[in-house]
Amino acid sequence: PDDRKLPITDPAMALSQADQRYEHEFRMRHADGSYRWMRTAGQVKERDEQGHPIRMVGIRTDVTDRIHAEHERRQMFERISDALVGVNTDWVITYANARAGRLLGHAVEDLVGKNVWSLFPQSSGHQFQPVYERCMASQRPEVFEEHYEPAGVWYESHIYPSPEGLSIYFRDITDRKKSEKALIDAKDQAENLINGANVMVVGLDARGQITIFNKAAQELTGYTMADLAGLNWFDVLVPRERYPEVHAEFARLSSGGLPAQFDNPILTKSHEERQISWQNSVLRDGDVVTGILSFGMDVTARNRAELALAESREQFELLARHSLQGIALVRTAQMSYVNPAFCTIAGRSAAELSRLSITQMLQWIHPDDREGSRHRQRRRLAGQSVDEVNEIRILTGQGEWRWIQLATRSITMSGAPTLIAMVLDIHDRRQAEDALRTSEERFRSAFDASAVGMGLTALDGRWMQVNPSLCRIVGYSAQELCRHTFMEITHPDDLADDLLEVEQLRTGRIPHFTKEKRYLHRDGHPVWVNLTMALVHDASGRPLHTVAHVEDISERKRLEQELRDSEELMRQMAESVSQMFFLADLFEHRFLYVSPAAEAVLGCRPADLLADPAVWRQSIHPDDRERVAQVVQQGMRDGRYDIQFRIATAPDVVRWVHARSFPVIGAHGKPYRIAGVVEDITARKILEIREEQEHAILQYLASGRPIAEVLEKFVLGYETMLPGMHGSILLMDPDGMHLRHGAAPHLPLAFCEAVEGLAIGPLAGSCGTAAFTGEAVMATDIASDPRWIGHHELALENGLQACWSVPIKGAQGKVLGAFAFYFDHPRQPSDAEALAIAHGAQLASQVLQRHLAVQGLQRSEERYRTVVEWSPMGIMIHQAGRIVFCNPAALETHGATTTQEMIGRQALDLVHPQDRATFARLSKHVLEDNQSTEETEIRALQIDGKLIDLQIKMAPTLFDGNAAVQVVMFDITERKRAQAELRNSQRQLRVLSSRVLAAQETERRRVAHELHDELGQSLTAIKINLQSQLRLASGESGELFAENIRIVEQALQEVRNLALALRPSMLDDLGLVSALRWLTNQVRQRNTMDVQLEVSDGVGRLAPDLETAAFRIVQEALTNVERHAGASKVEVSASIDADRTLVVRIKDDGAGFDVAAMRERATSGASMGVLGMSERASLAGGALTIEASAGKGCCVTLRCPLADPGNH
User: Is 0.90 topped by the overall pTM?
Assistant: First the structure.
């Protein structure tokens, strides 16, 4: 009927036409009732006197097979992922698949029948045309790449010629071409980095010839790359006497040695020798060394300075050792150094002097001189001037009182405060005065040159004398520091302990003290120091002053804190993750630390690994031990290895682990330890093996192999996955009551024969029970499992003691068989094994169902061809509204168990009444237009009346030779329910978010109120009291009161600013407009940006929640502009649209950003500000839009309809 409109089907009409020849294809009903495609060709053979045709001859040919083959060919082309176009020898497009239409920008029907060069005139002049013409002429296939300028796209074309024309496959390779260009750009960038480096970068090939010589190297040596091209590094730049040493290092690196820091001189073009410190890297191509890349730093000046320092230190020690004047250095209230002359004058050994504290030594001062010493100490502590040179009597080791001249000075040595004491025996006055001048000069030089801070303080704490090192530590000049006391520059938290120890020192309860404390630097930051302080007495034993040695330990404190933080972080991380962390000595090959996860990952306790590093190797699977040993041994050379292997904690318990290590570099720049992580990857490896197994099994099945071979290969794969397991598959007999052998490659033959035809039941072993109950049966010990009663002996006689079995189910839950794992000892499945069993049953189900489907297809291939292609989905066919076919999935979808329950029913009876019109309309469209429909969601009914949701798609088809409608359906009931639950969850989340934001604003309002009203009032009262006292005070006390008033006023202003930042009072009192004016004014004052605010006249007071939301969004947006945009101008506007919508816009001319990337970071939790702004807008019934691009600024817009009842 659909073809009767063709003229050729009516002979009268055909004869009435004037054409001499005709040719058509149409369908004719066969005698068996089916329709067959016929090709009719004819010609008019005789005409009457008027020229009308009166006789014709023709031939009809059955072309049904060709038509069907062409249909299958088109379907095959549509499944090809690449674009495909066919052209004939006249360059007319004969076929194009959908992918080609999308790439070429045309509908397929607009391409077919068109001339290529007419349809795409832009192709003229491109490589396309000559290549296509050459392929057509030579009949040889070609592949080429070409950039198509009109579309800005790169194509890769595969051209296959034939006598009928060309088949052209092509794909879009634009992304690949962009990646290749990016690689070239990266190489150029690397060259720019090398030439821009401020150190020498030199590259040598395997022969020592120079391949890289950057700008810094050229400037230092005077050579250009052109001067050195093709020359050997050793012949040009290495001094001849250093040639063997340098060449040996090059040979060592070329043979695979580890890179290390290497110092050697080079010769410049002007023959100047420069000392260079090199850091080398080895360039490799696989395992072959191809060259050396070296980074060099000129250390000539540093080496000279170090040499001069060593000479200076040697000269000082030589002078002190041979000096006739006694010299002593006092640190931490004890003598750290005395020269021989000091020991001679004191009559005591150096060992005795070093054991005693300064306080104890002060007892050697004559009683008549002690008061003078104490007096000088008091003056020094009071900041008054004292004589640096004193004459006192001391008691020598021989018990004799002798006059000495003592000169002391505080210096800094090695970063610590040091007191240098110089002593002369002044029994001979003239000689003593001469010696005093010499001693005084030496002392002053040593004091000033000391690297340790040294200072003398009076008994009142005033600095009397300080050396440059102490001034450098605290940031004051010597004159400034001597106007202060040590209490004034001591950190407040350390002052109380300081004063207590000084008091104990002054009262003689302690001879000296050493402590770590903080001074306040002149710029206000704390400086950690190691302080040693001792008390100096006069000849009569009275305390004169204290001597302080100050060592700057700020850097050490910072490093110690960083080390503690790093160690704590490492410990917490190692103990909180499932991976095993370890730290090992690279040279002693022993573990230094092993995390607690070692027992779970390797089956070894951390204590055992620390005691015996080799114990873990005993658990390595025998097949992997040699490979692991080789990799680890090679990795111990540089501290790096990465390997996956198996461990066996029991005979049949095998786990996969992934071990990785990396070197820990020491202060000398070389690796000395190994850190690593070992991770249990058993589940992942089982998944990988299972996926490989699944792919292999499905390919094996698709190749048409017998089901017995497929099942045996299936079981062998799982036996490989789980060592020690013997697998078995039993298949359900057609009677549904017995199990038949499927596959068991390694089970005893006697056992397999005994269980053949096993009747299923509740006590039928693991497989029989699993098939009967439809549930997994895990018999971990067959001997004691009640489900094996009557079968124990059979299993135990064949060495089987455990059996885990799961049922294999079909699409409708029908049991198809059982999949079992047998073991020769009692076993409990691990989580990974339980997962493997479950997936094995699913894969076995797919295999068996596909096998059954193939059998059904072979029985009725023509009838069910289309159905088989859609077999994973529910398929129903209806003719004139009556159901004529349903596949099992459709039966399950509609709750039917047999086809008899569905066949013959009216299709509309299974559709919800309200959706029947839609179903009927779609069916009519398919039959009349012979076209498929789009996917549509409808409500349907199961045969018991239960309502379900379906997603359907209809397509025209033939059933028994007649037109019919094929309905492909997918049950989306659960998805609909999940979507409803998701919407409900989102509503609850919105309510919770609203409450959280409301609570946040309430708390901010309360805190702001308390800051302003309570703390603000208290500060105001303090200010008034201080002002009252200021009027009564004078002099220094008046200045102190004035300073305190200024501090209180500053604190009062900070409290006000904080209260306004938490919750501007004008937002509640005056509304949104006033709050925005205050906010933009604050931003303008903090920055150099031009911040403008524009508010239309229609914006008045709004609902409090809306005003709060709008204000917080503007506040967050301006904060982001300040932090990130780098803008020079910001525009903030607020207006009411004609449709009663509040529009608030924040626009800047800053750097801009990628909006999509920003939203992705916000969704992942990396940026909560954007999420907070969007949530506030949503809760206010509005929407937030963000428009931005790199370099073009950003615009944030809030739109809130005032028609929302909450926004009035």
Answer: no
